[in-house]
Amino acid sequence: MLKYARRLALCAPLLALLAIVIGLPASVAFGDEDSRSFSTRFLGLNEVPPNITDATASLRLTIDGSGNSATITYTFTFSNLRAPVTQAHIHFAPTKVSGGIMVFLCGTAASPGPAGTPTCVSGTTITRTLKASDVVGPTAQGIAPGVDMGSVVQAIRAGDAYGNVHSTMFPGGEARGQLVRSDRD
């Protein structure tokens, strides 16, 4: 009996540590709270279906935190669209698949986006920080508008998010780029 009590005493600290780790949210236990940087270059050939265009765009973003309290700070620029810009977004889908809009990057008078969305102006740099209230969905893919930043962050970190810029000539998107991790662990 004494032998088992000694073994239990030796294992107690390990069991306590295990209980603490199990009780933590996964994002804290496994270090997902760190900032993460992602980037992409948009091209017409990346659209679904592909487009022939000279349009290009660049999107860089940093995720700070995790869950619904996370924020995303982005820098976005585009140029050479074949027609007037209508809006730009980050969508939820893997490469070569169309997905729903998660957040707006910029909008226009005709397609303004939610309150606080910057105006799309070709050749200028747009910088903004997004929070949970900026999420617009897509509800059909399980992302709740106005609250579900955690799912947006999850989609980006999993490689299932892309940015695209829309124009009057290509309403479904003139140029697109899949977000990829650009930082080091």
Give me the secondary-structure topology.
Elements: H1 2-23, H2 26-29, E1 36-43, E2 56-64, E3 71-79, E4 85-92, E5 100-107, E6 126-130, H3 149-157, E7 161-167, E8 175-178, E9 180-181
Antiparallel strand pairs: 1-2, 1-9, 2-3, 3-6, 4-5, 4-7, 7-8
Polypeptide structure, described:
Residues 8-32 have low confidence and may be disordered. It is built from 3 helices and 9 strands. The radius of gyration is 21 Å and the shape is globular. The strands form 2 sheets. The protein has a 5-stranded antiparallel beta sheet with strand order 6-3-2-1-9, with helices on one face. A 4-stranded antiparallel beta sheet has the order 5-4-7-8. Helices cover 19% and strands 32% of the residues. It has 185 residues and is α+β, with helices and mostly antiparallel strands. The relative contact order is 0.22. It folds into 2 domains: 1-30, no CATH class; 32-181, Sandwich (Immunoglobulin-like), CATH 2.60.40.
Indicate the percent of residues in helices: 10-25%
CATH top level of the largest domain? Answer: Mainly Beta
Overall pLDDT level? 86
Instruction: Identify the overall geometry.
Output: globular
Number of strands: 9
N-to-C SSE string, H for helix and E for strand:
HHEEEEEEHEEE
Which strand order do you get reading across the main beta sheet? 6-3-2-1-9
Rg, alpha carbons: 21 Å
* Amino- and carboxy-terminal Cα gap: 47 Å
- Major pleated sheet: 5 strands, antiparallel
Which structural category fits the helices and strands? alpha+beta
CATH fold descriptor of the largest domain: Immunoglobulin-like
